[in-house]
Amino acid sequence: MGIVSLVLTCGLSAQAQTLSGTVVDPQQRVVVDAQVSLRCGNQTETHRTNGQGHFVFASKILREDCKILAVHPGFDVLELSVGKRCVFTLPLRLAEVRQLVSVKADKLSHTSIVSLSLSANDLKTISDDTSDLIAYAKHLAGVSSGADEVYVDGLPTDQLPPAERIETITINASPFSPEYSDGSETHIDIVTKRVERKFRLSSGGVSLGTRANNSLNSRLQSASNTGSLGLVGPVPYLPLAFTADIHFNERRMQVPIEAVVPSAPGLPIAPVAVAQASDEGTLSDIGVYYSKSDNLNVNATLYVGTAKKLNMNVSGLTLPEAGVSSRTKAREFRITLRKTGNNYVYHGGVTVQRSDTGIDANNDSLGVSVPGAFVAGGASISREITLKTKWTFKNVLDARTGQHYWNVGGTISRIGDWQLTIPNPIGNIQFDNLGEYILSATTGAHTGIAVITRGDGYAKYSSYTAAPFFEAEILRRSNFSLRSGLRADCQTAGGVLLSPRVSAVAEVHGFILKAGTGMFVHDWSNSIFLKLIENDGHHLQQFLVTNASLVDAEEGTATLESKIVPRIAPDLTPARDWVAKFSVEHPFGKFAPGVEYTWTAGTYLLGSHRLGAPIGWTDLLESNRALRKQQLHFRAQYGIGDQTLTAHYEWVVARDNTDGPFSFPARQNDVRGEWARSGVPGHNVTFVGNLQLGKAASLVLVESWHGVTPVNITSGVDAEGNGLYTDRAGRPRNSGHAPSCNSLDLFAHRKIPVPTLFSERKRKVYLDLGIRASDLLGNKQYVSMGTVIGSPVFGRPLAGSPGRSVRFSLGFSR
Fold first, then answer.
1. DSSP-derived secondary structure letter, 266
2. For residue 424, is pLDDT > 80?
3. Residue 32: pLDDT band by 50, 70, 90 thresholds?
4. What CA–CA distance (Å, rounded) separates 171 from 150?
5. Which of 90, 174, 242, 679 could potentially form a cystine with 4 if both were Cys, beta carbons 3.0 to 4.6 Å apart?
6. Predicted confidence (pLDDT) per residue in 559-584, tens digit
7. What's the pTM?
């Protein structure tokens, strides 16, 4: 929510007063050259904010009918009565125009080429689902890679607010701000709406989807339905308003199974062509909003969500019998506070999260697999129960002293994990090829490699993190701004790491030049240490059995000889990225092109290494992996009236030598040989066309294309006899190519006024009709492909996302 802070300093006289204030944008950055007017009767005085966003009306005799107005391109005009108050906080809202995506309140903004901010008015014409809104905003910003890091009202979250409650969504607002350490990840800020003390029934409506054909098999279909309902009202006799919402979603899928299972007398596994899967969930929340004065807002919200999934992991080569089902209940309590004063804004809060998850295998039989052919039998675990708790406390002060802007703050959090794992009592066995499986199944030949787990899988782990930071605008001129900051990241067992940041922006003859660089530290995930504790040889004990027989494994008579024990390298260090950006932009009338270059160097990335021990094996977790990435991003925007077209093209060159903390090299004594292309598309293109069809209808087209993605090709042979099956037959890592993908989506919205039943009703009610068509051209969207050399499905697509589908939504708004 944008805020115009008006500080009315009452003079010594009861009638003469001095009005002063600051204009800031939705991210609390000052807005230069905003027009602020004071209107008293027929007299109007107008000023513009200076280079620091300030304005002053000196020694004015004010009457109760005086009004103050704030105007700036890209925002709605704001008008409030002065009355008898001395302190005002006037909220500015982003204007309901499609050109919004290219509007920058401050030409010296330190944002990136892949940054934007969208208002509630803009978002409500897209979808009634928050996940859809985030995906649309990312497409409009041109974001094509990286995980999402989502913050609601400045705090990290696991629960997304209902679409009806969102005021703005901002993508990558300030990439070098030391307040965060997201680095190359996608930083998403969601600001919730200010709640009025009026009864109002809100509805994101009901969304009904047509059946979508699977990209891999057009005879198989999936369908989804969503719905939401909300209520807002005042709390009697208190300066409080309450909110209550409930949202549900349901998705049912027919999943194609491409597994190749031999059919012969005596073989225990039968082929399957299709599996039924489902995903159901509800999310409800209740909140209280306090706003006794215009410059103090407090919001407390409790979220409760449930999710149920059937036949997880079932698709491609995995048969239904090897799948699992899960049930999750999550709770999150969030309280945020924002205080606006003379030249400062304080914001902070606390969030407390808890999630309980239970996972059950579809059956407890012996797990059997052949690389590139099938995965069948029981899953590796029979049951798993997890409890995750987290609390985060954050405080930030944004202020201006004289000519300088600065902010200071910090975040402290604790994450606790508890897990109980009951392993598959029989274990699993793997064969190099179908011939060895058939031989073992029919004659009892010892041609497989089995992994059998015994013991008590109870484990728990907790960690603390702290991250104080400071940032200041150390130099600002009319055409130049320089910011610098420092962040200190501290995590349990990780020590203290300092992350310097610096960014600059300049205007030279109409060109906007931006540059920045800094270090980003990535905290370890608790799940890494939880897995190490769980499999340390004292809780769960893993045994690798070579030359195993299918019969011995099924009957539990295999000899447990080689134990696998994980260990942590003594010099384990948190991963970090060093990122540098440089961009050039220049508007030419209605055409605004720009280009940005990004260089990323990742160090101390995690990976594993299986070492032979005197008896058994040791899996060593190390932080000796690295990444190098270069990105060249082109953006072009063109607008005519309410119609805009935004285009992005990104070229990526990335190389690394790890696929995650528990990935192993093809040759355990040759980590250097893992250095190869990263598994990201090298070319990405996005087009977004926004068409405003009068005042009540809109049409949005989103076209996204991603080039081929490098994938790892393996031989399917356990060449080193260590049970890892990482051999690549001499090929470099990620030597294969997954096919490119292309999708055209359409969003249509129509707002229809509902006739009023009572003439005294001041605010109109509208019926919102929405249509979303996904994959409009019916292109094949493949999720995975066969990557085992010589296997029956090598080079074939194994899983596909739903194809063309249409979803209709119906709701009400004011």
1. T
2. yes
3. low
4. 10
5. 90
6. 888 899 999 999 999 999 999 999 99
7. 0.85
**What letters, b where the CB count within 10 A reaches 16 and e where it falls short, cover 163-195?**
bbbbbbbbbbbbbbbbbbbbbbbbbbbbbbbeb
At residue 73, φ and ψ (nearest 5 deg) are -55, 135
* pLDDT at residue 361 greater than cutoff 50: yes
**CA–CA gap between residue 786 and residue 442 (Å, rounded):** 27
Distances (CA, A) of 16 to 58, 61, 86, 704, 728: 9, 4, 12, 59, 83
**Residue with token string 């340390």:** 536
pLDDT of residue 529: 94
Q: Are residues 642 and 99 in contact, defined by beta-carbon separation less than 8 angstroms?
A: yes
3-state secondary structure of 443: helix
Whether the per-residue pLDDT at 652 is higher than 90: the answer is: yes
3-state secondary structure 622-635: EEEEEEEEEEEEEE
Query: In the sheet where 2-10 sits, what is the strand order?
Result: 54-61, 16-23, 2-10, 87-92
Q: What is the pLDDT of residue 105?
A: 39
Spell out a b/e string for 371-384, using b for 16 or more CB atoms within 10 Å of the CB, else e.
bbbbbbbbbbbbbb
Strands (E) in 379-479, as ranges, are 381-401, 404-423, 428-430, 448-455, 457-477
Residue 650 to residues 142, 144, 516, 682: CA-CA distances in angstroms?
A: 8, 8, 19, 8
State the Cα–Cα distance between residues 380 and 364, nearest whole angstrom.
9
Q: How far is the C-alpha of 268 from the C-alpha of 704, rounded, in Å?
A: 45
Question: Is the pLDDT assigned to residue 266 strictly greater than 80?
Answer: no
Q: How far apart are CA 123 and CA 700, in angstroms?
A: 11
Cα gap 640→179, rounded to integer Å: 37
Beta pairing class for 212-213 and 643-656: unpaired
Burial class (CB in 10 A: 0-12, 13-18, 19+), 353: buried
683's tokens:
């070319």
How far does Cα 569 stand from its chain's mean position? 31
Q: Which of 596, 409, 604, 557 is nearest to 488 (CA)?
A: 409
Q: Please, is 672 exposed, middle or buried when counting C-beta atoms within 10 Å of its C-beta (0-12, 13-18, 19+)?
A: exposed
What pLDDT is stored for residue 280 in this prediction?
Answer: 95
Q: How many residues does the chain have?
A: 814
User: What is the C-alpha to C-alpha distance for residues 266 and 405, in angstroms, rounded to an integer?
Assistant: 77
pLDDT digits (tens, 9 = 90+) for 175-224: 999 999 988 889 999 988 888 778 887 665 677 777 888 888 888 888 88
> In whole angstroms, what is the distance from residue 296 CA to residue 344 CA?
12
Please give the Cα distance from 327 to 309 (Å, whole number).
Answer: 7
What's the pLDDT tens digit per position in 790-811? Answer: 999 999 999 888 888 888 887 7
Q: How far is CA 589 from CA 102, 403, 639, 800, in A?
A: 12, 32, 9, 43
